[in-house]
């Protein structure tokens, strides 16, 4: 029997009418041809925008620690299941130990930075030896997360009673941030700039021109957040929910002071020197008027807890706080007060 010969299919042009109808070809707009260098250049720019500056800095730090580990132990830098698992054990058990959950993030950074040189690194990262090593490290060195206490409605009211009559501009700013952060379930990074200048971006600042004030509410546009890395923007609307802490007069008082002092500035939140407040600035104010166990994250968790105690359905709280489904479930599990309030509301509706 004569051998069977493979017949290669003839190449068809993308403009072949048997592949693409002529009616569709005629609709294509005219575009210039780019050189290969231009294509590579534009792709490099796009890849450079994948990671936020803060994430990139963490990833670079993780990669440096991995390279140092390989140098100290005379290992080749090419990742293998052995070197990655050894690195994880070394980081968790060294003189300055790192939490296993942090090591997981480090491995993600190592994979991200080394993938252009070692394309198979992500498959190696998910190898059974590496995965099982991480599970064992979590059981051996893992510890429960220390959740900051949620701020209460009464504590917000106490600060409001102290600062509501102050004529100091920064006092007005802090009280407005405190109120908006609590009612809007904001992360502190959505209202304030990072302390590290390298991690700041004007694209993340809430613009003044997006503010809309109504009779019983006000709103603005949040350009981006953790669940919106594509900068689609979220429309935030703040309304009064508790009689003792009405956010509208607090916000209006700050807005009037801000517009009188800085009428031509883009940013919504500005301190007395015309600068965007940093996390450090806010936290220093917070320590002056709140208990030591209250931090910037306490606003978000406090607002969510207060809404749960009001009987607001958990699906609404998740949307108000812009949580992804997995993040919301993790948050509820980590905050027993919220879980208890949601369970109590469910029992009442049965």
From TrEMBL:
Keywords: DNA recombination, DNA-binding. The keyword Iron-sulfur does not apply. GO terms for molecular function: DNA binding. GO terms for biological process: DNA integration; DNA recombination. It comes from the Eukaryota. PANTHER family: P CELL-TYPE AGGLUTINATION PROTEIN MAP4-LIKE-RELATED, PHAGE_INTEGRASE DOMAIN-CONTAINING PROTEIN. This is Tyr recombinase domain-containing protein. The lineage of its organism: Eukaryota, Fungi, Dikarya, Basidiomycota, Agaricomycotina.
């Amino acid at each position: 029997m004569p051998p069977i010969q493979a017949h290669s299919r003839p190449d068809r042009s993308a403009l072949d009418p048997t592949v693409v109808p002529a009616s569709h070809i005629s609709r294509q707009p005219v575009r210039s041809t780019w050189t290969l260098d231009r294509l590579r250049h534009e792709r490099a720019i796009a890849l450079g925008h994948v990671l936020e500056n803060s994430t990139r800095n963490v990833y670079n730090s993780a990669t440096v620690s991995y390279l140092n580990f390989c140098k100290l132990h005379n290992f080749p830098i090419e990742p293998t299941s052995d070197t990655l698992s050894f690195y994880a054990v070394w980081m968790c058990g060294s003189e300055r130990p790192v939490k296993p959950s942090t090591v997981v993030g480090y491995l993600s950074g190592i994979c991200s930075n080394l993938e252009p040189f070692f394309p198979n690194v992500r498959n190696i990262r998910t190898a059974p030896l590496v995965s099982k090593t991480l599970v064992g490290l979590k059981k051996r060195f893992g510890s429960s997360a220390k959740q900051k206490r949620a701020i209460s409605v009464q504590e917000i009211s106490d600060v409001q009673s102290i600062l509501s009559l102050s004529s100091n501009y920064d006092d007005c700013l802090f009280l407005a941030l405190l109120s908006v952060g609590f009612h809007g379930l904001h992360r502190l990074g959505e209202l304030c700039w990072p302390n590290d200048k390298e991690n700041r971006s004007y694209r993340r600042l809430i613009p003044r021109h997006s503010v809309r004030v109504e009779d019983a509410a006000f709103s603005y546009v949040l350009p981006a957040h953790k669940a919106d890395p594509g900068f689609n923007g979220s429309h935030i609307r703040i309304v009064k929910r508790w009689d003792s802490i009405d956010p509208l007069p607090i916000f209006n008082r700050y807005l009037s002071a801000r517009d009188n002092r800085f009428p031509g500035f883009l940013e919504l939140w500005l301190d007395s020197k015309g600068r965007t407040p940093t996390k450090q600035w806010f936290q220093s104010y917070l320590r002056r008027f709140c208990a030591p166990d209250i931090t910037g994250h306490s606003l978000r968790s406090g607002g969510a807890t207060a809404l749960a105690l009001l009987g607001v359905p958990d699906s609404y709280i998740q949307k108000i706080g812009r949580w992804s489904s997995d993040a919301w479930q993790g948050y509820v599990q980590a905050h027993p007060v919220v879980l208890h309030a949601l369970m109590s509301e469910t029992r009442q509706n049965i």
